[in-house]
């Protein structure tokens, strides 16, 4: 039985399968060209880009925590222009479906970065990083206010027809309201979640373990929270959702998909196993076969909620 | 291209309460590994610990049939190194490699001085073998806490390497830092003799070696030990501030552009607390 | 060298040591009387109590997740009156310092429960649970609005002079603003964090693993987020903070204390090892000795922050 | 009072690809354990898996010097049971117990019928020994998937227990559920003969046994398998809806008030999906 893994993530963009390399966890994609068949991935979300180059934070930039890791990379990057000139052609060659994750310290910067990408060849979609916990200005500043979210999304919407995917922060009281704000401002899909603001302390030196003091928590530790957030957003909007947070295997991905995600991103797991992608595809295909399902769309949002019953039946 | 193998532990030789040499059946990696390259290792499945850890390829193992695997020189400092210390033959270790930029081995008439501190010995067995194959005259300056932590000296002697030792407690060789014998030797060596230095060990030691060598007009290749999340250029965790030409320092990924760097380009103050 | 582990958690309450059994993780304390010397703990925070008895949610009520667990107990409990009549005398006998965690579906209920406790003998403090994610009404409803937080705390403050410790939810954008609201309403200390709203899905049945669909995530997985929240609150208020979230040993506790917690609670770890308390005390004493410190107060909030420097030094 | 011990694995007998008997050196627990009580077990340190798991005490182990430990009858279904299946002698397992409310053993002239499904056999070895000590005539009704999963029959025979077997595939005993031989026996037994039933196994099976027995005017003690977070009454995860007297059902903690309950008081529809 052949199964159909393709998914439509909005804005007219169909992916051959739901597995996307998460931004910041896959360099610019080209680093992995020797290890992974980039064309076999649903898409590649490249590292967050500002208009200009950025150095990011000094080491230590990561620290491991129980079933997770903190990072405070600080969005080191080559800037959107060098990306278009130096990386995009190679990604095209590899047949990668490229989602470009963009950042800004101002609404104007977001719009400018988007405008440059709009004119470039080989960009499949823009993921709007309004949720990075690791920079002082921009990032989460926009993503943790409904107004900020709306305004950034609307501004970028005006300058591009590319599929537009704001990436939500989990560090808010009501993530679904942000999905609504993003939709109202013209988003084609939303992705969630970015990392959780967190910190670790070296008790011997009594210093933070990260040079930036705080960083973002990713990995399996956060998965149950991320799944809950996808579930909440699914009930609030009908936009395609791209779920992520601690996906280590096909079963984890299915939790997100069943909760309502159309596609998923895999970040931290790719550090542990750069060859994970084939395993994810095999696992998902096996699941569909085992359950006698023709396509992944039968699974998306298929969560069966219990009839609410009296506490003591 | 790196490969990822589920390598079986062939043997585990405990050298001291903290050090061991773990032999892994990973011939596909070993056969391609160049001196100074590393592997990303994860001894268990599961989420704890989550990430792999970087280790230099210590020896390339051979029997009559050819290359059979590689070994790691491991020092216990935390969760993964503790596990690697305790593994028994037959256990499996995920091992991804070879990774990173190797040393550039000297060529005669250039001489090679390797400077190792503690577990920083690891990349030099392979380098010594490569140097011998090229006919380069080589010396190992090797410092450790005590005589009991100066390992595998015979193996280096067999590779024709001269040894200059130092221990913190004076139990063997110079009493104090490995820079003591190194400085003496630098002063003694005719400046006209071409020489290249290689250093691996604690950051302050590599910095001192680089500066010392520089004062004598010599260049040092250092193998830095940054914390690494992926080993493949994906995460940007492993950066080192490098100053090239007259430019401002840049953070470059030591898993791709290193771990071996020209010591003179490293902005030492900008390295992490380690 | 003898070391002083005692801490003052506000409202005139001094604990012999900083280790408190977390509410909901230690029954009513009496269940542990045979296993643990209750008098040797800094304090015991008993299971959340409403005015009346409650049945809670049907099973499944817990599920394990990476380095953590979800619970949706639904605050099953015997009600405050039975607690005072049946459990408090026994707790007094055991020499326990009792912190009573209280809940309500309305501000009036909170106040009524507090009033009853105010008149009871052997209550050392009231912990105000405005952060339980597992009930439909009350709980987090109050705790996730600044107004709600202020009003509940103020109402309870009016009816009791007992030390009053609102327990904050982590499921908000800016936890420090809630600490400020609690302080302004008359709290003597705040404790944080309660659990993170989360969910897990059985992909084979496509049903939630918990009968209540969502539950609260606790355990080591959340520790880095909880430590960050304590750090943020420490910078916003000077009230004593009681930190918790995934503490498994003395070193974990020290992360919270160095970040600014005066005391800590231990919940999930107590399930794993009911004999943990002695180990925590030994570990903490050993740390102070090793660092040549005379008392725990030297450690509280001793985090050394780096001088912010240019990204590329 | 329960104790917590770091118990060494004495032996691990693999009975089938899914079942094993793990002998643990935990005499302090074994000596106090009553039939039907359980222990909370954690095979590894660390956070994965985080929580302990409940297991019935299967056998109390003795040598000439007295009680040496206890064994668990383990069935592989997930992460902890998989680890327990794989342990080698010498490994350590944290083991807390004894916990919970035991069976109330019958006394002559009352007869005892134990009804086990699969791994539900576990609490009955201890019960059978207690019954024999009291001189109670006992029968084990035991159902499994196939003949290969009917374990330790000889041990029960040695305890003087009569056996009535059933397998899903008919490879031994009745073809089908264990309730087949049970129902037959209930019908045959003179209603005047005093009888008590004990059941342990899948929830639907315990429910069926309780109802069947009830229809014949017999009471059943069931040993329920709720998910348990702590085993000590701390977490309220393990609750079972119990109806006592004419009252509305109440959730009671099966780690304290159980795991053994009077089957007639259990509100079966309110048990978790399991
Ligand atoms: C290219 C490269 C090659 C290496 N080769 C070897 C080798 O051949 N043999 C060997 O024993 N080690 C080697 N290391 C170091 C090794 O990777 C670390 O010792 C290892 O990651 C520690 O893992 P752990 O889980 O045992 O410690 P963790 O539990 O992760 O950490 C324990 C403590 O050590 C600190 N720490 C972690 N990693 C490092 C590090 N790289 N440097 C300094 N402190 C650290 C942590 O901050 C923590 O305080 C190499 C590192 C690099 C980058
Ligand atoms: C009082 C008591 C006594 C028990 N005695 C024994 C015994 O003697 N031998 C034995 O093998 N087992 C016994 N069990 C069951 C045993 O505790 C579970 O099999 C075990 O907890 C599974 O752990 P795991 O880590 O292997 O599975 P997990 O990885 O935790 O779970 C795997 C799957 O099984 C499900 N599951 C987990 N626990 C249970 C459960 N209790 N019932 C049904 N499904 C479950 C999970 O939801 C999940 O889908 C007993 C349980 C109780 C409460
Ligand atoms: C090292 C690292 C760097 C990251 N950089 C970015 C980034 O540049 N832009 C972004 O939107 N998210 C970034 N993220 C967040 C991930 O894309 C993802 O949202 C998060 O890690 C959760 O998924 P995971 O648990 O699978 O890693 C980064 C995460 C990590 C671990
Ligand atoms: C099973 C369970 C029940 C809980 N019940 C309560 C409760 O009744 N009241 C409350 O304020 N917190 C309750 N909590 C939250 C804990 O007190 C604590 O805030 C949280 O678990 C984080 O700490 P930990 O990681 O050490 O468990 C409960 C937690 C668990 C795991
Ligand atoms: S280790 Fe990930 S980029 Fe170098
Ligand atoms: S298992 Fe925790 S209360 Fe029963």
Written description of the protein model:
The complex is a heterotetramer, with two copies of chain A (313 residues) and two copies of chain B (274 residues). Chain A is an alpha/beta fold and 313 residues long. Chain A has one domain: TIM Barrel (Alpha-Beta Barrel), CATH 3.20.20. Helices cover 32% and strands 18% of the residues of chain A. In chain A, strands 9-8-7-4-3-16-15-10 form an eight-stranded parallel sheet. Chain A has a four-stranded antiparallel sheet with strand order 5-6-14-11, with no helix packed on it. In chain A, helix 2 (107-118) runs parallel beside helix 4 (146-159) and helix 5 (175-184) packs across helix 6 (223-236). In chain B, helix 5 (179-188) runs parallel beside helix 6. Chain B starts with a strand and ends in a 12-residue tail after the last strand. Chain B has helices at residues 27-30, 79-86, 124-133, 153-158, 179-188, 203-215, and strands spanning 3-14, 19-24, 38-42, 53-56, 60-63, 66-75, 92-99, 111-117, 138-144, 162-167, 174-175, 195-200, 219-223, 239-242, 250-253, 260-262. With 274 residues, chain B is α/β, with parallel strands linked by helices. Chain B folds into two domains: 3-99, Elongation Factor Tu (Ef-tu), domain 3, CATH 2.40.30; 111-226, Nucleotide-binding domain of ferredoxin-NADP reductase (FNR) module (Rossmann fold, 3-Layer(aba) Sandwich). Chains B and C meet through loops of B and loops of C. Bound molecules: flavin-adenine dinucleotide (FAD) (2 copies), flavin mononucleotide (2 copies) and FE2/S2 (inorganic) cluster (2 copies). Residues 38, 49, 53-56, 72-75, 77-81, 119, 122, 225-228, 259, 274 of chain D line the site of one flavin-adenine dinucleotide.
């Amino acid at each position: 039985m052949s199964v159909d893994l393709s998914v439509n993530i909005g804005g007219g963009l169909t992916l051959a399968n739901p597995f996307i390399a998460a931004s910041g966890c896959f360099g610019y994609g080209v680093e992995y060209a020797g290890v992974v068949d980039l064309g076999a991935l649903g898409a590649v979300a490249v590292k967050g880009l500002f208009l200009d180059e950025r150095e990011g934070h000094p080491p230590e930039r990561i620290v491991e925590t129980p079933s997770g890791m903190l990072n405070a990379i600080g969005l080191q990057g080559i800037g959107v222009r060098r990306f278009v000139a130096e990386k995009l052609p190679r990604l095209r060659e590899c047949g990668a479906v490229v989602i470009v994750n963009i950042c800004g310290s101002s609404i104007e910067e977001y719009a400018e970065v988007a405008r440059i990408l709009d004119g470039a060849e080989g960009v499949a979609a823009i993921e709007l990083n309004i949720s990075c916990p690791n920079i002082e200005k921009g990032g989460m500043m926009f993503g943790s206010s409904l107004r900020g979210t709306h305004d950034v999304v609307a501004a970028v919407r005006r300058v591009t027809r590319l599929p537009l995917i704001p990436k939500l922060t989990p560090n808010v009281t009501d993530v679904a309201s942000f999905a609504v704000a993003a939709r109202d401002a013209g988003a084609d899909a939303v992705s969630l979640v970015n990392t959780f603001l967190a910190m670790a302390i070296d008790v011997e030196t009594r210093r933070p373990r990260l040079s930036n003091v705080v960083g973002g928590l990713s990995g399996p530790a956060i998965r149950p929270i991320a799944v809950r957030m996808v579930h909440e957003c699914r009930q609030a909007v009908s936009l395609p959702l791209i779920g992520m947070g601690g996906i280590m295997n096909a079963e984890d991905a299915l939790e997100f998909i069943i909760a309502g995600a159309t596609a998923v991103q895999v970040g931290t797991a790719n550090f542990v196993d750069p060859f994970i992608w084939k395993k994810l595809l095999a696992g998902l295909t096996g699941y569909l076969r085992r359950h006698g399902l023709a396509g992944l769309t039968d699974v998306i949002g298929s969560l069966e909620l219990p009839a609410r019953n009296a506490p003591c039946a | 291209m790196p490969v990822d193998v589920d390598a079986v532990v062939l043997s585990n030789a405990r050298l001291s309460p903290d050090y061991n040499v773990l032999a892994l059946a990973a011939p596909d990696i070993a056969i391609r590994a160049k001196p100074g390259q590393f592997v990303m290792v994860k001894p268990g499945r599961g989420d704890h610990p989550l990430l792999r850890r970087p280790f230099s390829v210590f020896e390339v193992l051979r029997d009559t049939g050819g290359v059979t695997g590689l070994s790691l020189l491991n020092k216990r400092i935390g969760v993964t190194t503790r596990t690697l210390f305790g593994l028994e033959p037959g256990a499996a270790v995920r091992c991804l490699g070879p990774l990173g930029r190797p040393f550039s081995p000297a060529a005669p008439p250039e001489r090679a001085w390797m400077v190792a501190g503690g577990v920083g010995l690891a990349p030099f067995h392979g380098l010594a073998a490569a140097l011998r194959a090229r006919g380069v005259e080589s010396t190992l300056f090797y410092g450790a806490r005590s005589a009991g932590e100066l390992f595998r000296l015979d193996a280096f002697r067999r590779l024709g390497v001269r040894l200059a030792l130092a221990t913190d407690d004076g139990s063997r060789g110079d009493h104090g830092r490995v820079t003591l014998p190194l400085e003496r030797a630098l002063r003694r060596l005719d400046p006209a003799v071409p020489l290249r230095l290689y250093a691996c060990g604690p950051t302050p030691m590599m910095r001192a070696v680089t500066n010392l060598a520089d004062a004598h007009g010599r260049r040092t290749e250092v193998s830095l030990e940054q914390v690494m999340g992926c080993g493949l250029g994906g995460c940007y965790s492993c950066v080192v501030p490098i100053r090239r030409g007259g430019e401002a320092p840049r953070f470059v990924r030591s898993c791709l552009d290193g771990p071996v760097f020209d010591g003179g380009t490293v902005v030492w103050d900008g390295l992490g607390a380690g």
